[in-house]
TrEMBL record:
Biased composition, class Basic and acidic residues, residue ranges: 156-169
Domain of life: Bacteria
PHA accumulation regulator DNA-binding N-terminal domain sequence ranges: 9-69
Xref: NCBIfam families: PHA_reg_PhaR
Signal peptide: none
Identification of the protein by name: Polyhydroxyalkanoate synthesis repressor PhaR
GO term, biological process aspect, one: regulation of DNA-templated transcription
Residue span of region Disordered: 143-169
Domain called PHB accumulation regulatory: residue spans: 73-112
Amino acid sequence: MAEDQKPLLIKRYASRRLYNTETSDYVTLEDIAGFIRSGREVQIVDLKTGDDLTRQYLLQIIAEHESRGENVLPVTVLNDLVRSYMVPGGGMMPQFLQSSFEMLRESQSKMMENMNAMNPIAKIPGFEAMKAQQEAFLKAMTGGLSGSWSGPEPETSGKEGGKGGEDLDAIKHQLAELQERLSKLK
């Protein structure tokens, strides 16, 4: 199993503190929710007994979000979940939920692929270069504050006409070329 596919191991100490074994620091339930939102699987184990506590903590994360008004699960679904616990053997609910979420993930992935394939702007020659330049420009303008920009790190020099000015000139040139191409398409 690849390193990024292995679950992140969180150990619970007797003090009930949660310890991230990869970064060697303590984490909160909100930190764990963030790991999961970013696509990382987690496994939470009791340090002393070795018991797997993952399910218990995931349910606690959901309960805390629901209690703060971040209602994701309708009451009817919660009622159905409670009913499924009352059926000997758990009924069909666990398999149904797992299959439903797998289908949802696949549908979202296919939808994103289709949207990217149907985007006519992405087919314009030089679009990727323009996009990269735009991201670099925005990153330079925001001082690199946002972690979502994927452009190159801006170089900072004491001169006003440094790399930032060159990037701006390149962006202006590319925009002029793109505008010229678009006017020819009309």
